[in-house]
Amino acid sequence: MNVRRITAVATKEWKETVRDRLFLLMSFLLPVVWMVVFGYGLVLDVEHVPFAVLDRDQSSLSRDYVYRFIESRYFDYQGSVSDERDIDRLLGDTAIRMAIVVPERFEEQLLEGRPVTIQTLLDGTFPLHADTLKGYVIAVNRAFTQERITEFLTRTRGLVPEEARRLAEPVSLETRYLYNQEVRSTWSMVPALIMFALMVASPLLTALGVVREKETGSIYNIYSATVSKAEFLIGKLVPYFTISTINVVVLWVIAVWLFGVPFKGSFTAFFLASLLFILCSTGIGLVISLLVRTQMAALIITIIIAMVPTILFSGLLVPVSSLSPGAQVQAHLFPAMYYTDVVRGSFLKGLDLKAMWTDLLALAVFAVALRLVAYSLFTKRPKA
Amino acid sequence: MKEIGAEDSSQHTVLGPQHLDAVVRVSQFVKRYKKHVAVDGVDLEIRKGEIYGLIGPDGSGKSSLMKAIAGVLTYDGGSVEVFGTRVDSERAAERIKPKIGFLPQGLGLNLYPELSIEENIDFFAHLRLVPDKDLAERKTKLLAMTRLERFRDRPMKNLSGGMKQKLGLICTLIHEPELAILDEPTTGVDPVSRRDFWSILAELLEETGMTALISTAYMDEAERFHRLAFLSCGKVLASGMPAEMRALVPGSIVTCEAHPQLTAIARLKARFRQVESLGSFLRVFIDTADESAARSQIDAALGDLTPSSFRVEEPGLEDVFVALLLRKTEHKGVSEVITDSAVVHDRDGLAIEAEGLIRDFGAFRAVDHVSFRVKQGEVFGLLGANGAGKTTVIKMLNGILLPTEGSGLVAGANMRTAAGSIKERIGYMSQAFSLYLDLTVEENIRLFAGIYGLDKHSMSKRFQWIVTMAGLSGYESSLTHSLPMGVRQRLALGCALVHSPRVLFLDEPTSGVDPIGRRHFWEILTRLAREGGVAILITTHYMSEAEHCDNLALMYAGRIVAEGSPEDMKCQVEEVAGRLFEVVVDQPRRALVHLQQTGFHGAALFGTKLHLFCRDPLRDKASACQALEGSGVRVTSVNERPLSLEDVFVYRVMALERTETSATEGAAA
Asked: Under an 8 Å CB criterion, which residues of B touch A?
């Protein structure tokens, strides 16, 4: 192991990367752009759902019922229709995602104390959305029903409204959302996006950096020189490691300042896990680069290998615990999941090193294993 | 597969007894890429201090062999011994690497484009742990020697081909290896830079006692080596010193004129296997070294045609290689029915007329006032190195690229305004052979016919013509990617001719094709021009191929620096510079220094021989010999040599550079 040779490789690599405009942009701009675009774009909150109403009753009570939806910030009133066929058309065009049909004699029957059914038509194209939407509808409907009961009790038994309300809902539910009090998806999304940006950008950079040399033939300078395998691999990774480390800090700042996500945990633990994770992601890039010959192949394979599991199995969009058993196994075979745990834990849960040491250990194991694979794949005397 | 190399060992008997000072010893070397056998049973031995050459076309196994010797490629059979170490594992390979400098193939491709000249050198030096003091010293010396001193801080991506090549050499030699392995260092570089490169290399080798293994695709560089091996299809066809190689195939080259040329060719071909037409001349290889015997053989073959301007020369190494190749393979002659159903174009008109073409890319002038004319039925060669502007000229004439200034007529259409009709009247074949490799020969031809809108009847007629013309019969249903390079090249030519164009553009069509394939190709081109009246504009960086053209233009840095027929161009230079002599001496480097001191500035080293121009043959020859003998160099022989086109190119460019320097100096004063 000779420091001078490592420095030579690292310096050369650094100069090439920062002088090549495309590489420079890829190194520093890409992660930030992803973070900002997806941070604003990938909002999973279901709000402002467009809907239309077919009110066959046209009574004051039916208007009162519909008005509750119109007022809610979760819904966006698009207007009334007079024909059921219009609803089909609007739903088909996705002009609305929900329709409420109030039956005839709605007020009359309610006042007579008979049950009525309101029909809601939901666009089920996105099951997750539809589920959330159904929850909102049920909540609005229950509030209206309770109010009817409360009013009935006050009227018939002469109770004060307070007491009537208690009677109408004997068991009340108190929900407190922990870690993310306002249940804002941004808070959960943005920290995970740090993982995403690192997971895709740094393997890409590393893989292209190595394959570029294979493609031009300058790798023969390394093959034919006295530089050892380890020296070359270390020297080659140092610049990409440095770039990714800078990116971690930049992304952290964006998460806290731009998106206002609270950081409650220990920065040391977060930073340490980040360094381990960068070692993993650059290691993945390195392994890919040793298996392919062209930059195009490196690009495609990196995107497939890095992006797909990252999106599906890392807990970025869907919690790992709610994946199918098979998918859960896959998730555990990939370093992204452990880092996502650490990031969310540090930002939202305020966990410290002690609480997350298993995740860090897993990352360390991946980092070492990937290095070993890369070392054994790399040969200075290839077959072709 | 037959026994590896068993049959070959008898072929290169010229290899002397095993030398004790052998630096590299390769025996029964075999390299396979999956099923393909790239190198098949090669033996060679490189002695300390010599320049050993590997010559052969693309795919002959040169690179595989060199990489294995450099310890950067595994092999499948035989043994490789370098500096007494058997290179059979990665560990063993690591042991020899401190003593080796390896320059991979591809001009400047192993260098780092974003880094400056100095940074590139520093990187290589640091990788090899060259002490800072030595590095500074060597850098100063090598940069001065290669005249790159002024460009120290220029990024490598902004260097010319010749500069990249020299930088590559410096980087490979910065740790002063004992063995330099250089894979095609001169491919794609202009002749001036090539000569420069060879003289720098010779000087360095002489000084340090370094050994060098160098490959080249240029046959005419064979003379530069002390010893060489000629590779073909993964086997050594012949090896030894250039003189020994020549002795393998005794014979002579006869050049003469005879009319009508086509009849003369037909008659000569009936008797001799190597017959070429060079412009109006015929060139025949006859396997007798005796001049009068050669003459009588020619006379007998020609019958009632009388040859004029008869000349007998010693065969070049390329002729030797072709003769050796011909011994092994059955050469299929070009069919005689070439004009059958072919469109014969009017012979009198002008096919191409370029007037003051200029093309700028930003601040860079790629083409600078280029004018020339090509008649129907003429083969016109555009020569020059990579980046000289040849391809840009072709693109402008094809109507693909608009000229910044100037005008041109191609096949009667104005290239500025009638790009569409130009495309109907011309055929174009590029270096990359724009064929579909997954289609068969027939499918490729039919596809191109379809693209040019041929109807069914004319398509099948044309198909037959192409197959006969290009010698493709038997290959019709073969997949294109399985074809040898030479056949692929002829197929590409056939596809370019599918619509009977009046003008044919060929952009470096012969790169990477073996000498026989190249000769076959030229035979077809000549016949197309002579019999079909097709005007052919061809670019090439093989100076030896240029001899086939009727007229030439040499391009350098976007300008035409010389033009005319090959003969005229040589005469022009001979008039100004004098005759060319080849001097054989016992201490070539010392002799060169002395000659240059005596005033022979044009003297250059060619392997172990010296070349110099003499204005007054008798007097200059005598004074040169005197100067040499006086300094203790023994002169073995001094012989006059005919000029090659490369000599012409080098002379022209050097003269140009001299006037430029004096002009700038004059302006400065």
From this structure: 33, 67, 70-74, 89-90, 93-94, 97-98, 100-102, 104-106, 109-112, 114-115, 119, 122-124, 126-129, 155, 171
* Chain B residues touching A221 at Cβ < 8 A: 104, 110, 124, 127, 171
A321 in contact with chain B, both atoms CB, cutoff 8 A: no
Asked if B93's CB is within 8 angstroms of A5's CB, the reply is: no
Given a cut of 80, is residue B654 above it in pLDDT?
no
pLDDT score of B355 more than 80: yes
Sign of CA dihedral A274, A277, A281, A287: positive
Sorting pLDDT into bands at 50, 70 and 90, what band is B129? Answer: very high
pLDDT in tens, B372-429: 999 998 999 998 877 788 888 988 888 888 899 998 888 888 888 887 788 888 888 8
Residue B189, φ and ψ in degrees, nearest 5: -110, 145
Q: What is the pLDDT of residues B524-556, one digit of tens each?
A: 888 888 888 899 999 887 777 888 899 999 888
Contacts with B72 from chain A: Cβ below 8 Å = 220, 223-224, 380-382
- Dihedrals φ, ψ of A180, to 5°? -140, 75
Range(s) within chain B of domains with CATH label 3.40.50.300:
8-241, 350-564
Q: Using the 8-state DSSP alphabet, how is residue A72 labeled?
A: S
- Residue span(s) of chain B under CATH 3.30.70.100 come to 250-314
Is A235 in contact with A5 (CB distance < 8 Å)?
A: yes
The architecture (CATH level 2) of B250-314 comes to 2-Layer Sandwich (3.30)
Question: Looking at beta carbons, which residues of chain B come within 8 Å of A216?
Answer: 106, 109-110
Query: Is A227 within 8 Å of chain B by CB?
Result: yes
Residues 16-45 of A with CB under 8 A from B: 16, 19-20
The CA distance from A354 to B132, in Å, is 49
What separation in angstroms does the CA of B390 have from each of A145, B184, B426, B622, B649? 86, 22, 17, 42, 15
Asked if B74's CB is within 8 angstroms of A383's CB, the reply is yes
Nearest CA in chain A to B127: A5
Domains of chain A are: 3-43+185-377 (no CATH), 49-168 (3.40.1710.10)
Contacts of A310 (CB under 8 A, 6+ apart): A195, A196, A199, A200, A316, A334, A336
CB-CB under 8 Å, A224 with B73? no
Tokens of B45: 């031995």
The CATH label, of 3.30.450, 3.30.70, 2.60.40, 1.10.10, for the domain at B569-668 is: 3.30.70
> Under a CB-based contact definition with an 8 Å cutoff, are residues B359 and B366 in contact?
yes
User: B8-241 maps to which CATH number?
Assistant: 3.40.50.300
Mutation site, A220, A236, A293, interface B, largest B CB count within 10 A? A220
Q: Which two tokens stand for residue A352?
A: 């410290």
Q: What is the DSSP letter of B155?
A: B
Sheet holding B604-606, edge to edge: B604-606, B609-614, B579-585, B635-641
Cis peptide before B260 (omega within 30 of 0): yes
Tell me if chain B has a CB within 8 Å of the CB of A86: no
Contacts B93 to A, Cβ<8 Å: 380-381
Residues B231-264: tens digit of each pLDDT: 888 899 889 988 888 888 888 888 888 888 878 8
Q: Which of B72, B109, B158, B179 to mutate to test the interface with A (most CBs of A within 10 A)?
A: B72
- Does B669 have pLDDT greater than 60? no
Q: Was domain B350-564 assigned CATH 2.170.120.30?
A: no
Prediction pTM value: 0.80
Say if residues A214 and A293 touch (Cβ distance below 8 Å): yes
